[in-house]
Amino acid sequence: MSSKGDLTRRQIIAKSMQLFSVKGYFNTSIADIVKAAGLTKGGLYGHFRNKEEIWYAVYEECGRVWKSVVFEGVREIADPLARIARLIENSLKNYLGGRVFEGGCFLLNSLVDLAGQSPNMSHHVLKGFQGFSKLIHVWLEEAEEKGLLREGLNLVEIANFLVISLNGAAPLFAASKDPAVWRQTMGQLNYYLQTLRKEN
Amino acid sequence: MSSKGDLTRRQIIAKSMQLFSVKGYFNTSIADIVKAAGLTKGGLYGHFRNKEEIWYAVYEECGRVWKSVVFEGVREIADPLARIARLIENSLKNYLGGRVFEGGCFLLNSLVDLAGQSPNMSHHVLKGFQGFSKLIHVWLEEAEEKGLLREGLNLVEIANFLVISLNGAAPLFAASKDPAVWRQTMGQLNYYLQTLRKEN
């Protein structure tokens, strides 16, 4: 692909991301995207066959951005519980509080937008969240093996609960723009995480 | 209003609730509502001036349904922490797990759908969630006065966190239809609530 073609493709993805985030997928038309990207319909169809294909490219790009923010400085932390705490801080303070996407979390918004209307697309988003939860689960298992956790914890349940709570902060922050939403969620998730640690 | 008129009005609200829940507010047209309710445009405009007015009526009706499920048997519980536990159970097992609204939680979906597009309407939904959090806060204060809580807790933060976590379960359950979502959230929120109790 020529570098000009590549630039156009990235422009389509960037403008679509903005439109999908704020207006929603179904409410955004190909005509909206063509207009926002300053293209002709033919220019757009040279890069994507349809709106669904654009959505998958936008999702991939959002996932890349999300990962770069949420995993920043995480993997080099040796203590798996401190690693999870950093993941929580990155997710709430830097990703959500940093207002990385206009209109809130594109990934969560997509889930709400697509559930009940497009099983394939909402399943795709769901798989992303499940992967995130699975990774936290692996780190909790590592914490357990290192003897850092109290006895008898349900690690799958804890991992899912963390993802659920992080997701819960997104729409309330998007609507209120009140930093208390992510700050308070961070405060309580940190407290919760500490209660899992074995007392010394 | 005649009882026939009242019936038509309720029919418009019921059909709009379904359409807004599944398709979203902006993606639902007056023509969609007219068709789903089996009316003429004139028949609809005899009851509502515009789509926004219908949304407010739908929101009110959803709020009524939500309250009837979420507060069932709650107020008669003397221990404020047990009262909050029942609220959590009702919200997750009976409201979310009971699939009261098609397409997930209408209230949360509205927040995602409207944030960034209609400040007035999303503010209206947000006020509902804030009222819910305020009530939990009052019950936590009651628990504190009764000496049931550990020292030094941030009760506003705890109340908001509970609402945030409950909200986080809604989109993941709507997309996955997996009861583990509400069950695991209930398990961990109950555990969390117990950690707030003063040890005897």
Largest sheet of chain A: none
Query: How many domains of chain A, as an integer?
Result: 2
Assembly form of the protein: homodimer
By secondary-structure content and strand pairing, the structural class of chain A works out as mainly alpha
**CATH architect. name of the largest domain in chain A:** Orthogonal Bundle
H/E element sequence of chain A = HHHHHHHHH
Whole-number mean pLDDT of chain A = 92
| Poorly predicted regions of chain A | none
Shape of chain A: elongated
CATH superfamily of the largest domain in chain A: Tetracycline Repressor, domain 2
Largest interface, and how many residues on either side? A-B, 50 and 50 residues
Helical content of chain A (DSSP H or I, runs of 4+): over 70%
Number of strands of chain A: 0
- Beta fraction of the residues of chain A? under 5%
Measured between the Cα atoms of the first and last residue of chain A, the distance is 59 Å
Q: How many alpha or pi helices of chain A?
A: 9
Which CATH first-tier class of the largest domain in chain A would you pick?
Mainly Alpha
How much is the radius of gyration of chain A in Å? Answer: 19 Å
CATH topology of the largest domain in chain A: Tetracycline Repressor, domain 2
